[in-house]
Amino acid sequence: MGREMKNNRLKLGWLLAGNLISSTGMSFIWPLTTVYMHDYLGKTLALAGMVLLIESLIMIVGSYVGGRLYDNGKGHFWMLFTIAMSALALLALIFCNGWPAYPLLLIINGFTGAIANTIINALAASIKEFDASYIFNMMYFMANLGVVIGTLVVGFVVSINIRYIFLVTAILYIIFFLIAATKYSFENTQIVKNKSITKRKLNKKTPIGNILVIGGVLMTYLMIQIGYSQWQSNLSVYMQSLGIGLNKYSYLWTINGIIVVIGQPIIAFFDRRKPVNYFKKVYIGYGIFIIAFTSLVFARDYTHFIVSMVLVTFGEVIAFPIIPAIVDDLSSDSERGKYQGFVSISASLGHAMGPLLGGLIIGGFSYDVLFEIMVLLVMIFTCLSMGITYFKLKK
Q1: Which of 373, 236, 259 is nearest to 305 (CA)?
Q2: What is the chain's pLDDT, residue by residue, as a tens digit (395 residues)?
Q3: What's in the GO CC field (predicted)?
């Protein structure tokens, strides 16, 4: 029993290591996409935005495909295949980084990466030796730690030669592939391990009540991601219009990263000692997002933007890691991959729609109207989700 637990702990450790390496690699690429296309390839910002929109939409498809592949028992092969394809696309970028090779390879990497990430999330959800909340907290922590490391190192690499970014990222993904090929075993999932589970249970569909609860949680998550994406797009322009420089805007993301990296292990530690009801946590996080988005209506100086970013980050740290845990808890074993795919789809769809919707609202009305609509949408869907959850749990 002790040896089995040790092996399971090791498997989780390798999942976390892979998550750290892959997120570090991708954090070399995504911050420079717009700058590289505009400054190095001479393309317009609108065209760069269109490429990012297409990539987000392709990632939505990839997330859905990844979930279906996992549920159909083909997760192991396709996880390795898609990680290998991502590594090959990144290797190709070292030599083919002009137009249109750069956006095409970027989109291929986004598609294959979305498939692999969904399969790996479903694999993580299958580990029953740890509470799902703890697993996803640690996965989320490693992903954000990778972003902090990547964004810190990327400036140094760019100062030497921007094309070295593609080399470093490709090397990291090759390491990621080797870890996945040798350490990511699908044989110890709950479905295979528990011999008492009958075929009927494996084929059991997720109850309609659970689907409604999942839908409510994910629709609110989508609204939050639409609002959150404003921080990564339109807020930088808004802050400059108020006389706040881009350097100060970038410091806000440093604050975001520090809070996530420090806060996530603390939450995971207390979760293991005294678990908190999943729904209480997610709705506390949603409530903090409502307060954070409301604060933007009154933000006119840098201090207020710092306060708003701190609130947004606390909401993110509390709510985001618990969402896949809720989905795992409510979905049947035979549809685990499908519903983990919907978690990724909600995030990708929010990032795809957010900047465009925000730009349309700002162009037609104002930034204040945008912030007020964000607050209203998140508040409405949070209330709907809470109502659905209450009646489902009561039943």
Answers
A1: 236
A2: 444 444 444 477 888 899 899 988 887 776 677 667 877 888 776 777 778 788 888 988 998 899 888 888 888 899 999 999 999 999 999 888 889 999 999 999 989 999 998 888 888 877 777 777 778 888 888 888 887 788 778 777 877 877 788 899 999 999 999 999 888 877 655 444 343 333 434 557 888 888 999 999 999 999 999 999 888 778 877 887 888 876 777 778 778 888 888 887 787 777 767 666 888 889 999 999 999 999 999 999 999 999 999 999 999 999 998 898 898 888 887 887 888 888 888 988 888 888 878 888 888 898 899 999 999 999 999 999 999 998 877 66
A3: plasma membrane
CA-based R_g, the chain, Å: 21
Which domains does the chain carry? Answer: 2-189 (1.20.1250.20), 208-394 (1.20.1250.20)
Closest CA to 328 of 210, 223, 203, 222: 210
CA dist., res. 316 & res. 311, Å (int): 9
Q: Per residue in 310-344, is it b (16+ CB within 10 Å) or e — as a string?
A: bbbbbbbbbbbbbbbbbbbbbbbbbbbbbbbbbbb
Task: Using DSSP, state whether 346 is helix, strand or coil.
Answer: helix
- Asked if residue 207 has a cis previous peptide bond (ω within 30° of 0), the answer is no
